[in-house]
Known about the structure:
412 residues, alpha/beta, 5-stranded parallel sheet, two-stranded antiparallel sheet, 24 helices, 8% strand
Amino acid sequence: METNADRTLTKIEAVIFDFGGVLMRTGDPAGRREWEQRIGLAPGELIRAVHGCDAWRQAQLGRMSVHTYWETVAGMLGIPATDIPQLRHDFYRDDTLDPGLMALIDELRRAGCKVGLLSNDSLTLERKLRRELAIADRFDAIVISAQIGVMKPTPEAYAVICRVLAVEPCACIFIDDMPANVEGAEKIGMHGIQYRDRMDVRIALKPYLDLKGNSTMTDSAPLASDTIKSFVLAAHGNLAAVQTMLAEQPALLNAQHDWGPSGLEDAIGAAAHVGNRPIAEFLLAQGAQNNICVAAMLGKRDQVSAFLDGDPALANARGAHGITLMFHAAMSGEIAVTSLLHERGSTEGYSHALHGAIAHQHPDMVAWLLANGATDPNVLDYAGKTPLERALEHDPSPIADLLRANGGKINA
């Protein structure tokens, strides 16, 4: 059995928090009670219906869009779909972010400790953290179950955030309100703390570290700019190099290189905008942050739908170098994805997306784009070539005939 003496001998490099039930907690659930009274449920039945059903688990695993999940809940409760927005609002309206714990997180980082967030939740949590609460930048790593396809207490969930933080499990403290999740963390070597209501987390951390400045925490050396650049470049097409570099320096996973006027680019963004599925899938498996452009390139319709449920404006999102979401989707060849984007308000990049479809030889996608918004069949790519010129690089090319029939030309 581990003792306090054993704990103090461990160099603690990271503290990892759960979100719901720890950082964000429900006070007086008046909104939930109102719905229970309205639809004739016993006290406590609403939360069991909303968060105790299999549909919630599927949404947490990224296998079901949030839109479909709430439709399923509405069906179970016998309420019309038009009531879903109000139910969602009222269900979470009494949740409150703990200001004391957020202040502690800031203090931990100032002391040189990495701070992570590991949550079983749907894809909408990332938007909540970044936009509604604006706290995403107060963590060194955020891992959400729906992004990685596994949930706590599965060992891989903890392993992913350790990889992202570039720390060993034995150098981490994990804080969760669910005993099973704490036990799961301890099984892979983490130090677990079960959060309880009104708990003083600062006191709970004392056996592990001294927040007054005498801690055993260590700083990580910053990544060199040239190293980040090399890693991002490799992510465009060199899987072996990506694997080797990431094994040597795990902190590269979500590192961004600044290209100046072209903006920031990380490895997953690089793989996404060139349509490199093997590299993108490898990076996601290591815990890279998923986003709608990556999901679209991979042809993951349900994930794309979930992102749009969380933020409809993402229909016109752009990836690395300002490349449109439609371009990413066209590379997948999945018309179900481009049709979804079209239906949900995507208006940008249809013509340029022809180049994405041609690069990956998807004639059906080229035909769909020409029929649904690609108004310029002669749009130039980064090298000044038209879609027809790119199509003719593949001999024979049914795409070339399709482009000619729609006004495609060779650039004089």
